[in-house]
Amino acid sequence: MAVTPLINETEIRERLVELGRRIEADYTGRPLTIVAVLTGSLVALADLIRQIHIPLRVGLVQASSYRGATTSGTTLVLNETFAPDVAGRDVLLLDDILDTGRTLATLVEHLKDRGAASVRTVVLLRKVGRQVVPIEPDYHGFLIPDAFVVGYGLDYNDEYRHLPFVGVLEE
Ligand code: 5GP
Ligand code: MG
Known about the structure:
The structure is a single chain. This protein is of the alpha/beta class. The protein has helices at residues 9-27, 42-49, 102-113; strands at 2-7, 32-38, 56-67, 74-79, 90-98, 118-127, 139-144, 149-150, 166-170. It has one domain: 3-Layer(aba) Sandwich (Rossmann fold). A hairpin with a 6-residue loop joins strand 3 (56-67) and strand 4 (74-79). The protein binds guanosine-5'-monophosphate and magnesium ion.
């Protein structure tokens, strides 16, 4: 399968600098914890936090969607082995891509239940025309068309995550 480049390394780097500046300004003096959704946001996490020059903590959660064989719709399964204590913290939830919105919406509620003082969201990519759950990310990197993308952390069958750019996977 071929990967057609969509967003190159320079564009991603420049955009993360901008997002870092905004996040820095918005969270100065606040107890910031960035919670990244594994595995897709790993590369964005590493690059984004180095553009935020204020104290912060990092935590991880793993979220996987399963399409049930017998039930209709999808179930989100969380693994919180490496999740931080977010009680009283201002949480910024980071995911690779907002597609239907289910993952982010579910995790926002979950983090609030865990006692976070506030929960905002940041996504590297936002797919246009696919959203099912109404959630507005507070920060996003790029709007992209409805295509299956890989690279810069995003996978297809656990491959392509290491590509330094985002591209469309072509059959
Ligand atoms: P949502 O819950 O918003 O439907 O889905 C978000 C999750 O679906 C992302 O964290 C990502 O794992 C996966 N996903 C959605 N669209 C794409 C895509 O185009 N490429 C890849 N690799 N994963 C995607
Ligand atoms: Mg994901």
